[in-house]
Fold:
Amino acid sequence: MKMSKDAVADRIEIKVVGKSGQISLGKRFAGKTLCLERRADGTVLLTAVAMVPEHQMWTLREPDRSRIARGLAWAGATKPQDTDIDALLKPTTKTLGQARGRRR
Structure:
């Protein structure tokens, strides 16, 4: 991919590290989480990253990831309908002790 000199110039900045070892990246990066990679040749690479809390990692693993994707696809393709509250509140005729949950 070929880039013009102007495109490269818009992306390169010279920063001076202060006495405390800090640099300012500007408001564009305020509050972002960055990965700092120190390379063997002395270069430093900062990459913006998104962190996923450990208690939410299950949403990225199978089979949950596929189930979530199917549910979102269904929600996007299905027209909303009014809910009959009275029908939801009617007692059911299920017998006690009947198995509930996923089919195996």
About this structure: The chain is about 25% helix and 10% strand.
